[in-house]
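Annex B.
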Amino acid sequence: MKVLGIETSCDETGVAVYDTDAGLRAHALYSQIDLHAEYGGVVPELASRDHVRKLLPLIRQTLAEAGLEVGELDGVAYTAGPGLVGALLVGAGVARALAWALEVPAIGVHHMEGHLLAPLLEDDPAGRPQPPFVALLVSGGHTQLIHVEAIGRYRLLGETLDDAAGEAFDKTAKLMGLPYPGGPQLAALAEQGRAGVFRFARPMTDRPGLDFSFSGLKTQVLLAWQGSDQSDETRADIARGFEDAVVDTLAIKCARALDAAGGDTPACDTLVVAGGVGANKRLRAKLQAMAEQRGGRVGFPRPAFCTDNGAMIAFAGALRLQAGQHDDASVRVTPRWDMASLEPVVSEKK
Ligand code: ATP
Ligand code: MG
Ligand code: FE
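tRNA N6-adenosine threonylcarbamoyltransferase: predicted structure tokens.
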């Protein structure tokens, strides 16, 4: 089954074709970063308009790269939420219209389920992590630990009470004068910084529980930065101290979640990590080491599929379409959407 995936929830237009027999056939991404940079954040109306401009050319490009005619598609998947309502409607409208014209089924995908399943996209089906496992979702808008009982059956174990991890990276970068969006740049700077010169708290690790809080860390960085010589070297050292604090905190909670995930059953040994912060090299190394030490495994998407992309939507949609699920013909999006309300995926064929 060849499924076109469309992602337009925020400031990235992502398109891909996932083939349930041959894997990922092609993918393309257009990022609106330059468009929003002068405003220091995403401007929703500008985002919607740019999706309108870019989506059809990207679909044509992706189909050409996949060597497919549009009529060869068996289904269309699109991000139906959560996200910016105008941006979502662009993807939903195009996806529904295309599916209707081609007389193929369409399905609205939960953006965070897309992120969550992205680590599974890499492996051939035999090597994929099998539920139950624990997922760490660390993106620009979410920081969640989820017990994945089955594909589509998600139980929230803990989440951030304030800033998301990616948001903390972006805001911390901004307060040290790095240009928008600063998260990846802060991480690059941390590579040059020395460990231990600045040490920040590992928030909420001193008490039981799986929730996070990252907004206090940002304030600690602000105070350290204001009281420093503000040299390039110091900026790098602070970046390193901040990154180490976030990475340690996430690793501590992941270990706890793996211990707790089973409830009455034995602890879980598989972790998957997704969302933009999952591209962070130090986080990947730390979680890899933790998993090895526990005798378990950890799965990540390739760095390009940690942040928003069409491939994860094509993949998540393909799993649901393959299981016989699809939506009716109305164009509906859900800007706020609880992932625990999703239907489980029960495969029709093995
Ligand atoms: P959501 O999926 O929650 O709606 P989003 O789609 O904006 O949010 P993603 O695209 O998954 O989030 O990820 C973007 C975030 O990832 C940004 O906050 C960015 O700073 C962060 N990020 C990207 N690369 C890195 C990195 N190497 N280290 C740390 N953070 C990173
Ligand atoms: Mg983005
Ligand atoms: Fe995202």
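The longest helix spans residues 232-260. Residues 111, 115, 139, 308 surround fe (iii) ion (ligand 3) (CB under 6 Å). Further annotation is deferred to the next reporting cycle.
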